[in-house]
Every structure is written in structure tokens, then in C-alpha cells.
Amino acid sequence: MYKDIFVSLLAGLVCLACLTVPAQGVAARSTTRQLIIRLQDDGTRNAASVRPKATLPGLTLPDGRQLTYVRSLDDGSIVVQLPETVSLEQANALVSTLVQAHEVRSAQVDKRLYPALVPNDTNYTDQWYLFQDTAGIRMPAAWDQSTGSAGIVIAVLDTGILPHRDLDPARILTASGYDFISDTVSANDGDGRDSDPTDPGDAVLAGECGPGDPLMNGDSSWHGLLVTGIIAATSNQTNIDIAGIDFKARVLPVRVLGKCGGLVSDIADAIRWAAGLSVSGVPLNANPADIINLSLAGAGACTPLEQNAIDAAVGAGAVVVVAAGNDGQDVANFSPANCNNVVTVGAISRTGSIASYTNRGIQVDLVAPGGDGPTQNDDLLTLWNTGTTTAGNDILAFTQGTSFTTAQVSAVASLMRAVNGSLGPASIKDILCKTARNFPDASCDGSLCGVGVLDATAALAGAADPASVAGNTGCGVIKSRSGGGGGGCAIQRTTRALDPLLPLWLLAGFIGLSRRSR
Questions:
Q1: Per-chain mean pLDDT for the chain
Q2: Strands across the sheet with 291-294, in order?
Q3: Which of 236, 307, 350, 463 meets the CB 3.0–4.6 Å disulfide criterion with 419?
């Protein structure tokens, strides 16, 4: 009977030689050469009589090769070795066939487990938001599932980009990016729209931005660099600075915010363009974004222009991730966080409590660590620049705000799409919400902070197997809402600033940027 079991199970399979994936085409962590099989009692007794490393009599595969007996386990299972290494996907296909046989109680892949990836970046230990048990997003185990794909593009619609020693120029699509700021004063680079997304600085003089703006001078924020650092700082390669969440995705810098913020009309055009859609007078984007990061906010209802642009981008396949904003108010009063078809992200502190500054309410989908505490070490470490007006030297800085919780969600969404390229915007949002973990502090609940805290490990596992989270409670899929130069490792630790570009105030005809520091 023992012989007959395996002949009947394997005779219909494609030969393993035909299934073999060359070693150079499969990462070692995605392969196996062993299965664990539990037979009915008669088969188990027969297997126990076979010597280890001996071929199992009669267990011939369709191509004539045999399986090798490895050992018996205490629960009555046996470990068998395949003739060659196969991918986990192929091994799971063999398991699926085995478990259909009446004589087989169970079967599973004998996969390998590994220590969780810990990047070698020198300041990784200061990035508590990636690994801390209480409020961190659990990146180390997530990186064991995927560190990203160069085929994924994340568009960062922000102040533009600066080079930094901890950014890989090959991953920052500066030459393909675009500057959508049409107002020459706000652009601060001598012209209007052009193909250069470099950040020239957004420093302002007291009162320069008009009524409602703080009556004080404001230094350049380098906000696009801060956000990009969270997403894509070079990880586990350079032994310097910090680890970005996505090791491989390319970042498309799209400049929409300058002095005094950015116009809704410019931002709406940029959203469309980033998704690969045509915009009059602008060359077509050759690198359509999988993820669009909007770390910006302005007071008021979602405008038809914003909503139409977001709907078009989502329809083109882009996931649109948006900051809740930093005013400590109801997110329903701030766009684009209150628009339809977006993933709206709030903030919690290192202790897990709701961040004092974050916008909140039922339109928040989930939260991530944004910094908020008595010391700088309670905030988020990312890439920055010493320049107060124009660019200076590369440094690191601690900062806080929903801009950076948004960046975390965008980067994890990018990893999810790297794991499963078939996931659309609705599925990615659904999985993000259904895998969010419980709030660690009672100050957050569903009426304020969405469904839970971003959990990268669970999100990637859910992306790999969406059916595994199908029964979980989440915030739902995309749907309508109710209502509207330096060479050394210098770290700036003396200035602790709230997200320097949020909130954006709605001024006459444009959204004005308000900078706050404390």
C-alpha cells in the first residue's frame, strides 16, 4: 500500500525537473527541498523501516526519480527530500495534491525560518518607529517577506527633492520628475512649471504669505527630503545613517509645494500626471506611480477638482495615501484627507497614545507612529539638510507629524505590491486595515484613530495570501465617505519640529503653508 500511495499521488504531476527553478532565479529564502507528510497508520509503520538518506522503495516520480526518507517526527509525520530544490510556490502545489489523497492525513512544506532582518545602517537603533514593540510598525519580520521591487514607483508630491548621501541616485527619478508649481513667486526657482523637481527651498519672511500666516520668518523645510528618507533611504548597504522602509522601489519626486504652500489646481494636475494620465502642456509621465504619497493638508471640504483627480488616479491603479493633518481637529474638515478613495493616516506617539497634534475622527483609516513626546528621541529620525534658505549639508533630523506616518503607509503599500502585483488600490487598503493591530493605548479608538496601528509584517503576509485575512474586520475597501555636504554622521538633535509643512491653510485661491516649531 505504501508504494501505491505515492505512485497514485505523484503520477499525475508534472515532473520536478520541469518545475525546477535555477538557483540564480530564486532567493534562498523562497525555496525548499523538503516536505513533511503524515500518513495513515499503515503508511507510517512502513516508512519507519526505511533507513535515513535511503530512497523510499517505489516512490518514483513521473520522470523516474525517487524521494528520499530523511527522518520520522514524534507526531508520526515523516520528512522527505525532493530530488532538487524548488520554489515555495511549487512545493505548496505538491502539498495541495498530497492532501487530496485518502491515505495522507496532512502535508506541509518544510520551509526555513531566519533571524529577522536588522539593517546595518548606523542610526537604525534610533528608528524606534520601525521595530519598537509598543507603537512600532514591525518592519524586521516584514523585511523577511520582502524588501521591495525596483519595478514599483512611489510618487512623492511635496516640496521637491534634494540629493543626500543616504539616497541612491539610481532610485530617485529626478530626471523623470516634474515641478508643477505654476506661481513663480511660490516656485522660488525663477520660473513656473518645468521638468526639474529639485527643491530650491521654501523659506519665507514674516507676513510674506498673507493673512493667517504666522508673523515670523520661516526657514526652508526640505519637507520632500524628510518624507523621502522615511520611504527610501538606502538600507542595509552603506553602513551609514538610517534605513528606509522600502529597499528597492524607485521614488518619483513631484514638486507641488513651494513658498506659502501649493495651489489645489497644481496639486490636482500633479496627482493625475503621477498616475500616468495626460495633463495639458506637460509631457506624459514615463514612470506611472503605483503609490502616490500626499503628505499635505488644507482646511476645508474636498474640492471637486481634488476628488476628480484622486478618482482618476485610483482608476489608473494608483494607491493614494494621505496625511490626516496636524491641527488636532476633526479630519473631516481637512482635504485631501476627507476625500473619497484615499487611505487617510493619523499618528500615535511612542507610548501608543494618540498624538497631541494629529487630526482625528471617523474618516481616519489607520494610524502609525508619528512622534510626540518629552524628548527628541520620541520623534522620528529621517534625512534632512542644514540649509536655512538654500541647500547646505546632508544631516539627519528628528521630526514629527502625519506627513511621516503617511510615508510609512506608502512604503508598506509599495512592499505589498512587490509581494503581490495583482493587488489593486481597493485590495491594498482593505488588507492594510484588516491587518492593523490593536491600539496599545486607550486614548485611541475607532472614533478617533481608525481601525488600528499599521502592522507591516501582517500587511505583507496578507498581501501574499489575501484569503487569510478575508474574515477580519477592517475599514473597508476604497469607497465613498460621508462628508466632505557633509561627509560625517551629523545628526541634528537640537531642533525638534512639528511636521514643517502641515497644516496648509486655505487662503484666497490657494492653500497656505503654516510652519510650526516647538
A1: 84
A2: 178-179, 250-255, 153-158, 291-294, 319-323, 343-348, 366-369
A3: 463
